[in-house]
Write a structure and sequence with these properties.
With 96 residues, the protein is mainly α. The protein is 92% helix and 0% strand. It has helices at residues 2-66, 73-95. The termini are far apart. The mean pLDDT is 89.
């Protein structure tokens, strides 16, 4: 009987250690999920900032070309022509 008692004690000890390991892994998993959510929020924030900066950059580029910058004159002309086409289209829609 003593041998069976030792086996049962050993099994109980191993099961106890497994439960402790399981709890530790569950805590670690939860921590990693929180860290992932935080990283996702940061990525979304940075993406929004990048979009806003790109819009500002495009506006500055357009402003520079309107001020006579040779560098972006072609882009400015294309943008103005595009805007004129849009205005013409709107006028046509209103007159129909």
């Amino acid at each position: 009987m003593s041998e069976i008692a030792e086996i049962v004690d050993t099994l109980e000890d191993k099961v106890h250690k497994l439960f402790i390991k399981l709890e530790s892994l569950e805590r670690e998993s939860q921590d990693l999920k929180l860290e992932l959510q935080k990283a996702a929020r940061i990525i979304n924030q940075k993406t929004s900032e990048m979009t806003a900066l790109k819009t500002q950059y495009d506006a500055l580029k357009l402003a520079n070309s309107l001020l006579g910058s040779e560098e972006n004159k072609k882009d400015t002309k294309l943008k103005i022509n595009s805007l004129i086409r849009e205005i013409d289209y709107c006028i046509k829609q209103l007159s129909d």
